[in-house]
## 1
Amino acid sequence: MNLILFTFIVLLGFTSYYFGRRKAYTIQSTNKRLTALPQFYGYYLAIWCAIPAFIIFSLWAIFEPTIVKLLILSDYSNQGYLDDELNLIYEKTKALSRGQFTGEITPFIEASAEKYLSLRSIAQSSKAVIVLSIIIASVAYAYKKISSNSRTREPVEKFLKAVLFTASLAAILTTVGIVFSLIFQTIDFFKVIPLFDFVFGTHWYPAKAFVRDSSEALDPTMYSDTFGAVPIFAGTFFIAFIAMCVAIPIGLMSGIYLAEYASVKVRQYAKPLIEILAGIPTVVYGFFAALTVGPFLKEIGNSMGLDVSAESALAAGGVMGIMIIPFISSLSDDVITSVPQSLRDGSYAMGATKSETIKKVIFPAALPGIVGSILLGVSRAIGETMIVVMASGLAANLTLNPLESTSTITAQIVVILIGDQAFGDPKTQAAFALGMSLFLVTLCLNIVALRVVKKYREKYE
Amino acid sequence: MNKNKEQLLNKRYKAEKRFRLYGQSAIFMALLFLTIFIFKIFSTGYSAFQKTWLIVPVTFDTELMMLEQNPSKEDLKDADYYDIALKSMADLDPNANEDQENELKRMVSYFFEREIKRELLNDPSLIGKTKDVYLTASDDLDQVFKGNYPRDLPEDQRRVTDYQLKIFDQLVELGKVESKFNLSFFTYPDSREAELAGIASSFMGSIFSILVCLMIAFPVAVLAAIYLEEFAPKNRFTDFIEVNINNLAAVPSIVFGLLGLGILLAVFQLPRSTPLVGGITLSLMTLPTIIIACRASLKAVPPSIREAALAMGASKMQTTMHHTVPLSMPGTLSGTIIGLAQALGETAPLILIGMVAFVNTIPGSPLDPAASLPVQIYIWAESAERGFVEKVSACIMVLLGFLIIMNLFAQIIRHKFEKKWS
């Protein structure tokens, strides 16, 4: 039904374009001067035909279920049902009306189901009637406008501009969506778990919150010592630190080499090859870390008499570092190349060697940009998920030993939310609280990094 | 004095050489990692493209199949194949006791009944006769045949029994074990049994997700980029939009997964585990990438084009839509493809919206539950069975293959169609 109506509106839109344009030609044939190209007459009519109809159509689709539900449940309003029970009644009614109901059918439900069906059919037909009359009214209005040869290009272009503007709001909407999806669950979480316990607690055992049965779910005392996020934060920064220990020296040195030393030919091949590392999906790195690097480190450690866990922070962090090399190398390459040649020439003229020039002139000049690129790398490392999930442990140990397993914010989110989850359960909410802290940390890093890089660019452009 | 100077100079030159060497070794290390990485994936994965078959003589005995004389095609479809399948496996060793018969049965996949049925349906004249049928070997024997299985382990530590190995070795000697191209890896959906697991379901899941992602992200991103680059006034609001876009590009992907879970699933009640939700989530992630690419290529169109169009009397909107945007398309398209390639490799957000559920049917629309290729890699990598290791690597090879093709395509579009303005 909806699909038919939808297609119908689209078809009408095309037809009105055709009629609008034809009207323009007839006006032209009476030797009157057109105010715009004929197709704008068509666009004008088509927009007036389709857009109001679509607005009504979608508003209807949004509000119809709510209104029908209210009408159905109004029969039960004075009988002292709880909200959950009312919802259940409504679900049963819908199931019965679709003929998919399997339980015991009570006369009440049967009556509601009949009412539901009749309401739906009334709604469907009145929707069709309203949409069609809206189309007729708006097309008539637009046709009159066209016939009196008033302006059409300006309204059409204004409309297009409005569409463009709306599209550009998508980025803001996404940010708002992220904040919204995180904030409510986070607030609920902190109603049960005090913020202090979350930020300073040193024990993280979300599984403990799960095994209890749901009747005691709202007793806050049982969650003490369950959601202390210190081990998680520590693990996150520790793994990120290991990753940066690999990525900064290698990334920075290859960036410098590519920018200052490499011949055109080496640069032409080496740069894209290194950038391949950035294009490999992280799940592949995770598999590599878990299958190859982890056991390899364990073997080496055992041969040296060390006790190395197969899922060590070192394996995850090291492989993550490899993943981040290209980010740092290509960003610092860009930054170094944009240092003005005059600085180099000045330094060479004073008799400095190339490496002295790099260390004493170019590096300080490029430092803000390099710091920016490193910050972006850190933000990547903190937000990286799959490598940690697959290669480092899932138990949250508070440790600074790189050979033991640790867990991170991202890995815990995945562990908690994999499989079915119940909203309203503190464990699920904990995942959103972790997500919120991850979002805030990376947001700060990104804003600082982008600002630093931008400032730097402005300096030399 | 002079000697001192020379020493100093030598020291400086040495430092210069050392520094250069650091740079070279950094590049070398990066490339070494890449090589090890690719070598490792290929060396563990190539064998998954071969599959081991046991050639077993099967007698299509009408009595065991509960068939009457001259059965119709329908009868053949409904017939009981389990008994003849079991019997033909048991016949491999005439002296086998009951336990050993069970072990014999476990030498092939549980699809053996279906494989025998297919053989007969293809050629109904086989009734009452005996024919050699290709049966999929169990994943452990498959690994034994490929030489990936440590045979010298004590018997209680491996899943293949000594008896199975003995029979298997006899079959190998008789030439009754064959390795052929593993077509079922591409045509079968996921399975708990490594020898029957394929990538068809996750592949279709990936395709649907990417299509949904493309259909949402591309139009919205291009329209947004056009507005920001061509029409937006310079004010605080447009600055705010810009900051938003740049930040979104650097938000960790898992946060988008939380968005999908908290908004798309919880508020809008969209169906879980479906490529539709996956595609929408991915499209939000890809949006900033495409916007940035499209803006860059709009910026690269020289002002002279716009000025010429405006001078001919075109409106701002006409100039943009008829001249600027078409000229910027190659850059936009290649940016879009690169964004989609990123989305194709994304795992974490899809896990959060439930695309890790075990799906053993091939999805036919974006509304059917599905996995995606990277999620399939994750699922298989978490399985303990030895047979899955090579499958993971093979799946990675397929995924990397797609990413390479997409990136090459983006390069070609950029180089072939992009106008160089000088």
## 2
Amino acid sequence: MSKSNIEEINRNIYDFKNKDEYDYKIKKGLTREIIEEISKQKGDPDWMREFRLKALETYNKLELPTWGPDISELNMDEIATYVRPKTNISSSWDDVPDDIKDTFDRLGIPEAEKTSLAGVGAQYDSEVVYHSMKEELIKQGVVYTDMETAVREYPDLVKDHFMKCVPVADHKFAALHGAVWSGGSFVYVPKEVKVDIPLQSYFRLNSPESGQFEHTLIIVDEGASLHFIEGCSAPKYNKVNLHAGCVELFVKDNAYLRYSTIENWSKNMLNLNTKKAIVGKNAQMDWVSGSFGSKISMLYPMSILNGEGAKTEYTGISFAGAGQNLDNGFKVVHNKANTSSVVNAKSISKNGGKCTYRSLVRIGENAKNSKSSVSCESLMLDDFSISDTIPVNDVRNDDVEISHEAKIGKISDKTIFYLMSRGISEEDAKAMIVRGFAYPISKELPVEYAVEMNNLINMELEGSIG
Amino acid sequence: MKKELLKIENLHVNAGDKEILKGIDLKINKGEIHVIMGPNGSGKSTTANAILNNPAYSKTGGQIIFEGENINDFKTDEIARKGIFMSFQLPEEIPGISVTNFLKFAKNKVTGKPVKVFEFRDELKKYMEDLNMNPKNMERSLNVGFSGGEKKKNEILQMLVLNPKLAILDETDSGLDVDAIKTVSKGIEMFKNDDNAVLIITHNTKILHSLKVDFVHVLVNGKIVKTGTQELASEIEEKGYGEYK
């Protein structure tokens, strides 16, 4: 296994900001004129322009959620929803402007592309600046491109799937996304094609007081398989930034998709992201998710098991520090017989940070002989951090096996003393315990992300010992 | 010439408000094996914890000198890096950290030098064979799901790998069957040389059947009431602590 150079990480890697330079930045706010202008700037086909305008209408009708973290500080009049970087999309890093290329270099993306990825997409603010995939996958008919190109070149495929998994009316921010979406990746894996090496898209938001609304649409056709990795980060600004991306995954019969994410947004970010998967007969959808950054996160990936024998597994971790409120979880809907779901969620909170695990397990009338097992564990590093679990189980037939386990713990002084008696400092001892706690999740991540996650943990714990 | 390693002078230690050690003196030279015996609650484990400066205990008087330096207020990890090791009565479980990775990290901290991966693995393998340990334990999470005996052997393994100047074994023999006690004794013999020392803390005498020791101290009610040689242990085995209470 290879490692990318993100081993040498320090906070600067995420917090450095380039000058707020752009080719075009839409004025702040959200009006019909602004949506029309975004659509014009992006050169949408008519159907997409209509789609956006309709989504805006839906947005205006919907209320903010009445549950979960308080997001009233979000003022859409202060957010620029479209920022086009000063470059066109290219398939060679040499053609990417130096300051933007430098950003991705520091994040280790081109290096990882050389060593451990089959394809890479890189988005800077609202547009994808780089997209490339290995030749042999192209020959096998795999499509991996930015979303705008997909709208132009695969209109039927896109029309059949775009916001069909996550409907515009799902919630207010799904509607917002429908109106202002820009960038993101489109993947199509043809029937029976197994993509052995992962594809990775990285989303970087550089511009202050702006939003990122990338759309990721993945279709894994019958019997095919794919591992897709998504990375996100942004430098810290004083004012609120918004991320309301949308991920739609279609896992057809007998197909396999693994979707891994490390979200490390800066701590002024509201991360209101929507991710859903529709899983076919005997297909499997695995989610691996690490949520570190952002001020407020409301993120509940969802698997809809629509085929008999469909399976899903969710492995996720959240780490909340001072001023962070991470409201994360997983939803699964069992619609057919013999379906199964396994959830392994962990959270760590420190310095007053708040982690909530919010989940839904719905087992429908037809989902006979289905199984669901949920385990969530929280670790609190001090007495004033908060951890909460809000599970909802909605079971509509008798022929099911369902379990839910929740554990909340603290690091014991005895454990720290034990490790210190081996010459390990208190800081290192705590980091070691936290890394060990996170290990069942980090071992599921691609190796360079596991390294990154351990570095993030060490970074989060630095100086946290009073 | 005997070289002094540890000197404890008139040590008083509290656990909370309660005085546990009421002025103990102890001198350990390089090349020696000492035993502290005593009934339950006499302050044996407190002695070990006080030497390592466990924050759960507070020193109210006296001093602990290690290689000529007062270590009363040193942090536990500094004391460990000075060369004192403690085998725990109830070793902690650390999920997600393998025995190998833990020991590699600890060895690096204790020696201050980078650990050579392959040499280290070979060393670990050899010690595990010597201690009749399952080599698969190397990759298991530290102490998680280990039996009582496996945990104690794992403590001895750590002692051998970290190679301290002074090893304090707190009730390492308790709860072990005869074979496991023999393995622990073997580990101590492998470890022991003229430049280091061992302090065994125990409430029974079983381990002394398979190990030769230099000094036996009887600790009762927070004070060392008698010091002798191996014969003292036999005497206590016969008569108990009755006469010292």
